[in-house]
Amino acid sequence: MSTPAFAADWTGGTEAIAYQACPACKSAWYFRRQFCPSCGAADPVSKPASGKGKVYAETLVHRAPVPEAKGDVPYKIVLVDTEEGFRMMAHGDPALAIGDTVMARFKPFLGKTVPYFVKAG
Ligand SMILES: [Zn+2]
């Protein structure tokens, strides 16, 4: 059994976003898997993402999902279509709107460093 070599990303406390891509069909996706969700090929490749993308959807969270987040509401959650072709959910600037071009930054949230999108340019 081989251990996949993953690119470092924010889930490990690093200020970086990693994604996976399939060498066989060129699909790209965000959540780590052992197989390509499109064609089923094994051994996807982990790559660092640029952090650039476009807002696909946004919502303002008014109700804290956990008691520890009470001091953080309301906060913006965005779905971003990245330039690498995968879609990811993350925190974002409250002023972001659908179609905005964004850049990933990072900020602390509930004791973790999480991706935080701001308007690019
Ligand atoms: Zn594939």
What does this structure look like?
This protein has 121 residues and is an all-beta fold. The protein has a domain at 52-119: Beta Barrel (OB fold (Dihydrolipoamide Acetyltransferase, E2P)), CATH 2.40.50. Helix content is 0%, strand content 42%. It has no helices and eight strands. The chain has strands at residues 18-21, 28-29, 45-48, 52-61, 75-82, 87-92, 101-109, 112-119. The strands form two sheets. The protein has a five-stranded mixed barrel. β7 (101-109) and β8 (112-119) form a beta hairpin. The mean pLDDT is 92. The structure holds zinc ion. Zinc ion binds next to loops.
Explain briefly what this protein structure is:
With 121 residues, this protein is mostly beta strands. Helices cover 0% and strands 42% of the residues.
Task: Please list the strands of the largest sheet in the order they lie side by side.
Answer: 4-5-6-8-7
Strand composition percent: 35-45%
Q: What is the tally of helical segments? A: 0
The SS-based structural class is: mainly beta
Question: What is the N-to-C succession of helices and strands?
Answer: EEEEEEEE
Round the Cα radius of gyration to an integer and report it: 15 Å
Low-confidence stretches: none
CATH topology of the domain at 52-119: OB fold (Dihydrolipoamide Acetyltransferase, E2P)
Number of strands: 8
Name the bound molecules: zinc ion
The average pLDDT score comes to 92
The CATH architecture term of the domain at 52-119 is Beta Barrel
CATH top level of the domain at 52-119 is Mainly Beta
